[in-house]
Amino acid sequence: MTSGTQASSGSKSSGDLRNYILVTAAYWADTLADGASRVLVLFFFYNLGYSPFKLASLFVFYEVFGIITNLVGGWLAAKRGLKFTLFSGLSVQVVALLMLAVVPEAWLVVPYVMVSQALSGIAKDLTKMSSKSAVKLVVTEGDEGALYRWVAILTGSKNALKGVGFFIGGLLLTVVGFQTALLILAAMVFTTLAATALLMHGGLGTADGKAKFRHMFSQNRAVNVLAAARIFLFASRDVWFVVGLPVFLRTELGWSFWEVGTFLAVWVIGYGIVQASAPKWVRGRSDGGGGEPDGRSAALIAFILALFPAGIAIALEAGVDETLAIVVGLAAFGVIFAVNSAVHSYLILSYSHGDKVAMNVGFYYMANACGRLLGTLLSGLLYQWQGLTACLWASVAFVLLAGLLSLMLPRADSAEQRLVPA
């Protein structure tokens, strides 16, 4: 009986790993398409003469529906399974890309593009939540070190590929034009959907038909505090990254589209590489020795992070060479931000156990989308008002708020931390 049970367990583990590889590959393909399409939309409408705030408005629905999707998606994943949310995300992404690729250019007005971006945001968050939640299927319960490494690798690889997507978007816009580029991306995502559906066996995790939507709102204090810190952490990045920086590089420094796309790509790829290697750099101080990061780690890294946008803003105001200040400063910001984000991604799964994983991850990424929405709106508004420097000082304020909230997270050596999984 024992050997039969072990064989069954081994077979299940092998099946979970196979499916996890497939869902990760699907997530990567969607990430490439998402990154490329955002650059395409940004620069296509910049060429039409849109103001910075109007450019930011194109992505408002993308972030608003990201908030809704992560709430509803976490509940759907718990109720219907991660396979359902994964395939739904890929399908919606194909529709979103085709909406812009196959219509006359006269249709490409702000409301229509906002709807397309809303669908793209839904697609991205469904696939992201499915992939992040699926990590729990292949990590032994209680093995926090392995969980930290797997989450860092997945999140880092995703961000590296999003950077590649930025480069591809800028390149395709230059070489083949807006709508042909979108057709290419739609074909890639559809091919991935078909291959994943064909090769995936069984489901992803266990569906709970009795899952209630009200359970999406976490009762876990640690999850709630982490989600609040996440809002301000991602607002601190997107307040300069979404509109302010690319428009500044194009208008003030005179960079071409592919040069801007390449810079954004290199930044995000480097950010992803650092994120994937974060477990080698950041360890907590559990019981006086090495350990996994905790709330104290997240707070300390956030306070260090705040120094960099402040330094860039001061350098720009002091007349330091703009290219040097931005390239060097944002490279340093990206390294520390990546480590901070990796710690957050580990903590949400560490705080989530059993049938609460998908719903807690959905709630956490809902907060992530709130931060991106706040940063996106302010990126266009502040840049139009006072330029890139205003965006950078807003980034400083948001990072400090994230750090202060992180001080409220449990520490690894506290009784509260040990009770978190309950």
Short account of what is shown:
By secondary structure, this protein is mainly α. Helices cover 79% and strands 0% of the residues.
Based on the model shown, name its key terms.
mainly alpha, 79% helix, 422 residues, single chain, Growth Hormone, Chain: A, 17 helices, disordered C terminus, 0% strand, disordered N terminus
Account of the 3D structure:
The chain is an all-alpha fold. The chain has one domain: Growth Hormone, Chain: A. Helices cover 79% and strands 0% of the residues. The two termini are 31 Å apart.
Question: How is this fold's topology laid out?
Answer:
Blueprint (H helix, E strand, L loop, with lengths): L1 H46 L4 H6 L2 H21 L1 H20 L8 H29 L5 H32 L2 H22 L21 H21 L2 H8 L5 H20 L1 H4 L13 H11 L1 H11 L4 H29 L6 H30 L1 H19 L8 H5 L3
CATH architecture designation: Up-down Bundle
CATH superfamily: MFS general substrate transporter like domains
Q: Number of helical runs? A: 17
Q: What's the number of structural domains?
A: 1
**Helical percentage:** over 70%
How many strand elements? 0
Q: And the CATH topology? A: Growth Hormone, Chain: A
Taking the sheet with the most strands, its summary is: none
